Fold:
Amino acid sequence: MTGDKKPGTHTGQESMTAVLWFRNDLRLDDHEALCDLLVRHDAEVIPVYCIDARMFEPTELGFRKTGAYRAQFLIDALKDLRQSLQELGSDLVLLRGRPEVEVPRFAQRVGASEVGFFEEVTSEEMAVESALRQACQRQQIRATGYWGSTLYHVGDLPFYLEDLPDVFTQFRKKMESQPSIRAPMDRPSHMAPLPDWLDVGEMVGLEEFGFDEGASRVDARAAFQGVGGEQAALARVQEYFFELDTLRNYKQTRNGLIGANYSSKLSPWLALGNISPRRVFTEVKRYERERVSNRSTYWLVFELTWRDYFRFLAMSEGTKLFKLGGVKCTDYVWRRDQEVFSRWVNGMTGIPFIDANMRELACTGFMSNRGRQNVASYLAKSQCIDWRWGASYFESMLVDYDPCSNWGNWQYVSGVGNDPRDRRFNVVGQGERYDEEGKYIKMWVPELGGLPRDAIHAPWRYGESELQRRFGVVLGEDYPQPLEGPETKGAQQLRLA
Ligand SMILES: Cc1cc2nc3c(=O)[nH]c(=O)nc-3n(C[C@H](O)[C@H](O)[C@H](O)COP(=O)(O)OP(=O)(O)OC[C@H]3O[C@@H](n4cnc5c(N)ncnc54)[C@H](O)[C@@H]3O)c2cc1C
Structure:
C-alpha cells in the first residue's frame, strides 16, 4: 500500500480529479495506480478505457491483429470491470478512438489535473503512451506511469536493466536470492460517484469490432473455456488451487494436452491484467501454508518468473523483439512460402501432432505450452519459415496473447532469442512421448481416429496399401501427405504390428 489511509477514504478537503486510463490492467485488486490516485492524491478518480480500432485491424498476412476469441475475452473483462466499479459507487467510461488523443481530451473535459496508467514495455504500446504524455503536457495535465504487470517490481531488480542476464537461469537465480516480491495492494472499498452529466458510453459488442455473431464461440473440446474478468480470474485460482487441489501435482501434469486442469490456465487473465502475478504468488504461499509446499508449488512461481523475464527482456531489447534476427542478431535464412504457412495455419501439414495443435488453436484460441513449443519449432526450425509469421498468427488467435511472452517465446524456440542451445524439436517423438496413446490427435484429427498408437504419429511411415486396407485411410485424400522436412527424411517404411 502506498499510503496509510484505506483506498476510497476521503479527507473532506477539496479533492482533485484524476483520470485512470485502464489498459492491460483490467482489475481493482493489487492496482497501484488506482490505490495511489485514491490514497496519495485523494483524487476523485474517473476510470476510463479507450477502445482502439487499431487493435483489430488486419495484419500484412491478412488476419486480424486481435481475433474473435480475445476480442470476446476483452469484452467480458470490460463488463466485469464496469460492474465492479459500479458496486464501489463509480463506473467505467468507455471512449472510442486513439487513446493518445481521446484520453487527454477527456481529461481536459472533466477538469482532471492528472492521468494515471500502467506502463507497457513494447514499441506500439510505448508509442501510444509517449504521444499521450505529450498531449497531456500540452494541456498541463500531469501524466503518471505506474508499474503493475510483473511478479518482481521493476524498481526491485538487483541490476540495471542493460545488465539483464542473457540466460533465464541466471536471471531466476538472481531474483530468487533476494526476498523482494512486494505484497499485493488491497482493492478499494468505495469510490466517488462520477459526475451526473458524464456519458459513460455503451458497452462494446463483437459486432463493433467487425466480427460475426458466433465468431468467438469456443469448441466444446476446448481446454480453456473461461470468460474474461477479475471475478473469473480469482475464481479460477480458488478452483485450481483449493477446490480441486490440483496445484499439488502441477509439475507432473503441466505438459498435458487435454482438459482444463493439466495447467493453471491463468494466462489469459494475466495477459489482460485481470489478476496480478503478485496475487497469484500470495495465493501460492497461502496454499503452501494450508496444504502442501512442494516442487509443484515452486514450479508455478518458476513459470511466472519466466513471464517476468520476457517482459524485462522486451524492455531491455526494444524493437529487436520483433526483428527477424532476434535479440541475438542472427543472420539465418528464412523461407516465405505461403503454401507451407497456410498448411500449418490450417492444421494440414500431414504431421498429426502439429495438425492437432493447430486445429485446437483455430477452434478455441488456446494451445498448451507443449503444443506451442512444437508447432513453433516445426514452422521455424523444420520448415524454416519466417518465425515472425507464426508469431503474428499467434498474436491474432491466442486468447492469452501477451507481446512479451509471445514474441519472446517465438524467438527462443526459433533460435534467435535467449536459448543458449539452438534446438529443433523432434515433433514426432514429442507426440509419441506426450500423447502416447494418440488420444489428443484423435480428438482434433478425427480422420485418423481408427489408427493404432504405433501408426498415428507418423502414418506416412507405413505402406499406403496397408494403411488403406486395414484402416481405410488414404494419405493425400483423407489426410495430407506430410510436408517434406526433417521428419520425413530417411524414414524407412515400417510394418504395423
Ligand atoms: C511459441 C510460444 C508462444 C507463447 N505465447 C504466449 C503468449 O502470447 N502469452 C502467454 O501468456 N504465454 C505464452 N506462451 C507461454 C506458455 O505457453 C503459456 O503461458 C501457457 O501455455 C499458458 O497456460 P497456463 O496458464 O495453463 O500455464 P501454466 O503452466 O499454468 O503457467 C502459469 C503461468 O506462468 C506463465 N508462463 C508459463 N510458461 C511460460 C512461458 N514459457 N513463457 C512465459 N510465461 C509463461 C504464464 O503466465 C502462465 O499462465 C507461449 C509459449 C510459446 C512456446
Remarks:
- Residues 295-317 form the longest helix (23 residues).
- Residues 254, 263-267, 270-271, 300, 303-304, 306-307, 310, 368-369, 372-373, 376, 394, 398, 400-402, 405-406, 409-410, 413 surround flavin-adenine dinucleotide (CB under 6 Å).
- The chain is about 40% helix and 5% strand.
- The beta strands are 17-22, 44-51, 93-96, 114-118, 142-146.
